[in-house]
Design goal:
mainly alpha, globular, 19 helices, 6% strand, 68% helix, 5-stranded mixed sheet
Length: 496
């Protein structure tokens, strides 16, 4: 009993420290944000439209994150009568930050089950300090709300498999179904749970008999369908739009190919490029410094020392393989992979960075320590040197205000808000320009919409006359990046 109380106390201390650090960093990033992400405008606009057209919002896009923004704004409205754009932005950023903070709790316990409490604490602390994951958690993006449900469901699967309690799989299925309303990728939890239970049916362990395994499988699927079926009925589709587009494009590509050899060679080329891009984006998220530690941690945990349990040996590789396949398919279909797309891979493998750093620290200690073998008083000295070096690399980018290189966007939006009428329509290359200006706007590439009263262009030479089909008058100009006086400028024209 004393040991259990000590363990719980240690967990509470660890979680309290992690949450405190995450809150401080998250609030700082929100307070210093210059501009939100492009996708953030879409999410906020859907949240604003949700009360008047809930069915339309549900059918157009997974509504989970916009609904959370809407509810957060309602909560803020109880304490403030303001309904400005900035209020909506802070509400959305607050939702992302809250989900990031909450997700650290299941992530900590996932790491505790896999690599132990102390290693999990250190790993999550490194994750909190990584610049790009931290920024995603303070931006208007749905990545951390998605990871919150993914982490809760993954923890429940690990817990259910370890404890042999069939009813836990039902809760995991329910969490996966709710997560699908934010991002369909949460359905992967059902895949892992189903595969685990089917494998165990062939060779049941002492903690779960075959009847219990069948009950666990049944309740896992039932729990998943409870929130998903109403959503599927409302939207009228079972397959997510992106997956449907991938299937359609693959069929068209195969049908249009004159040679199976050409198709295979082309596919192998795309897969190779996708893997290269995937490695690059993961390395970016880990600031490159922590990549060797990640690889060493995997090798030591799964190959060399064979320390991983059966549960870890199944669920972790299954998660990695499934997500790598999704990234490859995304690249083959859309031609891109971003840091945001690989965030789950970084978050759920961060524990092996910690393992790798310990191994590297021990190696450096043995190589550079002048003390006789076994007499060193601080065997983890080099580990802390490595961690401090890594965090020092992270700090400048972490503390840099988000999108400070686009300060000119805010200045142009401010000019539009102060010098145009509310009914004026603004044609812009980036929707954030009209969004911050609180004006109606239209996106254009080359041809300017006829109903536009003002046009915003991003140019290198503002003296070069634009080729519009109407007479225009230049009203305002500002550098995109005001710190460097970059060549790119935002120029606002009035249509005469």
């Amino acid at each position: 009993m004393g040991t259990n109380q000590s363990t719980k106390k240690q967990d509470l201390i660890h979680i309290a420290i992690l949450l405190s650090v995450a809150v401080v960093i998250g609030v700082y990033l929100i307070a210093t944000t210059i501009l939100i992400a492009k996708d953030g405008v879409d999410y906020i606009e859907r949240a604003q439209q949700f009360p008047s057209d809930p069915i339309g919002i549900i059918k157009a896009h997974p509504p989970g994150y916009p609904v959370l923004i809407f509810l957060a704004h309602k909560l803020v409205a109880l304490f403030s009568n303001s309904s400005s754009v900035q209020t909506w932005i802070y509400s959305a950023q607050g939702v992302s930050l809250l989900c990031r903070i909450l997700s650290l709790v299941p992530l900590y316990f996932i790491g505790k089950m896999l690599v132990g409490a102390r290693n999990s604490f250190r790993a999550i602390l490194i994750l909190i300090m990584l610049p790009y994951p931290a920024r995603f958690g303070s931006d208007v993006l749905r990545d951390w709300p998605h990871i919150l449900f993914l982490a809760m469901g993954f923890l429940l699967l690990l817990w259910g498999a370890k404890q042999g309690k069939w009813w836990i799989f039902g809760i995991a299925g329910l969490v996966a179904g709710l997560g699908c309303v934010i991002r369909p990728e949460c359905a992967q939890l059902v895949v892992y749970g189903t595969l685990w239970l089917l494998i165990r049916l062939l060779k049941p362990k002492y903690n779960m008999s075959r009847p219990k395994l069948l009950c666990a499988l049944f309740i896992l699927l039932i729990g998943f369908t409870l929130p998903v079926v109403p959503y599927v009925i409302e939207t009228g589709r079972i397959i997510p739009p992106k997956l449907g587009g991938l299937i359609d494009s693959s069929k068209e590509h195969i049908a249009g190919s004159h040679s199976y050899i050409y198709t295979i060679v082309n596919l192998l080329g795309n897969v190779t490029q996708a893997i290269g891009r995937l490695i690059e984006e993961i390395s970016d998220n880990l600031m490159y410094f922590f990549v060797p530690a990640l690889l060493i941690g995997f090798y030591c945990r799964f190959c060399k020392q064979s320390m991983a349990t059966d549960i870890e040996r199944f669920f972790v590789p299954a998660f990695i393989v499934f997500n790598v396949i999704m990234m490859i398919l995304l690249y083959c279909n859309s031609g891109y992979i971003s840091r945001r797309h690989v965030l789950p891979l970084v978050v759920f493998t961060i524990f092996y960075v910690q393992v790798g750093l310990l191994v590297l620290g021990d190696w450096l200690m043995g190589r550079f320590s002048k003390s006789p073998s076994g007499t060193n008083k601080n065997p983890q000295l080099w580990f802390f040197v490595l961690v401090i070096a890594g965090l020092s690399i992270c700090a400048p980018k972490l503390l840099r205000p988000m999108r400070i290189e686009k300060q000119g966007y805010l200045d142009a939006s401010r000019w539009l808000k102060e010098n145009t009428k509310p009914e004026d329509i603004i044609a812009v290359p980036d929707r954030r320009l009209y969004f911050y200006a609180e004006r109606k706007g239209l996106i254009y590439n080359k041809a300017v919409p006829k109903q536009a009263k003002y046009v915003v262009r991003i140019v290198k030479d503002e003296d070069k006359k634009p080729k519009f089909d109407r007479t225009v008058k230049k009203e305002y100009s500002v550098c995109v990046d005001k710190r460097k006086k970059s060549e790119k400028r935002l120029v606002i024209y009035k249509m005469m």
